[in-house]
Amino acid sequence: MRAREELAGWLWTSPWLLGFFLFVFGPMVASLYLSFTKYAIGGTPQFIGLDNFGRALSGKDDLFWPSMGRTVEYAVVMVPIGIGLSLLAATLLNQGLKGTAVYRTLFFLPSLTPVVAAAVIWRWLYQPDFGAINWLLWEIGVDQGPRWLTTPGTALPSLMLIGLWTSVGGGAMVIFLAGLQSVPRELHDAAAIDGANAWQRFVHITLPMMRNIIAITVLFSLIVTFANFDIVQIMTAGGPRNMTHVFATYAFLTGIRSGDIPLGSAVSLFMLPILAVSAIFILRGVRKRAREIGA
């Protein structure tokens, strides 16, 4: 029976495993290999050691370090706000209000919207001459609204807003909602009898029991945010004047647009140590709290 169950498990997971090795693990290994080579399309890769990493760190094209700083800025803003809004949405949906199923669908719908469709919607909203946002500003007395996507000061915040719109009601909210529903109701009832208000119950009961779930969700959000490519590429392609390039779009520009695939591979790998260090600290805290609970 156990052998049949194991065989069934491998059969059910084999399509995912095949896709993982073909489209995730395989390209990762190829990218790592190419980052140590000098390679021209149609030629033979030649091993050159760490030269590509040195070229990237030298910052000769004036885009590497700004892209890294912008990626960190993007993550520092997006992850806390996104996690906070997702937790808020999950908490509201967990109150058992009338019409919760409708609200849950409305919250979740943006995360299901294809990126291209979302880009079309937001391009229309951001249109400086006839877009809905500038029209609302005109209605309240602002004669000339910003050119949201073509002005350096507003382009990156505009992209962040799109990222929040597509992510807040997605996976993080669903995970938080499941976690909130696992918090024993008896604890809240007992605290309410002792005189604790809703905020005190949330801070002293819900958050402590949700800490590990929040930590893991922060880690996944950090990975997704660092790998953010599609919204930036579709909306601005790194413009205006390369002011919205993040690491993913800069690696694409270097490796694909400029044809220097080894350098683009090296650039893309610079995200790995940052994410690895973040994962170590977050997972260490998760394990520590898990041991405390087990004790």
Number of strands: 2
Provide the CATH superfamily: MetI-like
* Cα Rg: 23 Å
- Shape annotation: globular
Main structural class: mainly alpha
Strand order of the largest sheet: 1-2
CATH class: Mainly Alpha
- What is the N-to-C order of secondary-structure elements (H for helix, E for strand)? HEEHHHHHHHHHHHHH
What's the CATH architecture name?
Orthogonal Bundle
* Oligomeric state as shown: single chain
**What does the main sheet amount to?**
2 strands, antiparallel
Count the DSSP helices. Answer: 14
Give structural notes.
The radius of gyration is 23 Å and the shape is globular. It has 14 helices and two strands, in the order H-E-E-H-H-H-H-H-H-H-H-H-H-H-H-H. It has helices at residues 2-34, 51-58, 64-93, 100-112, 115-126, 132-139, 152-167, 171-181, 185-193, 198-226, 230-235, 247-257, 261-269, 271-294; strands at 37-38, 46-47. A hairpin with a 7-residue loop joins strand 1 (37-38) and strand 2. Helix 2 crosses helix 13. It has a single domain, classed as MetI-like (MetI-like fold, Orthogonal Bundle), CATH 1.10.3720.10. It has 295 residues and is mainly alpha-helical. The two termini are 35 Å apart. It has a two-stranded antiparallel sheet with strand order 1-2. The mean pLDDT is 86.
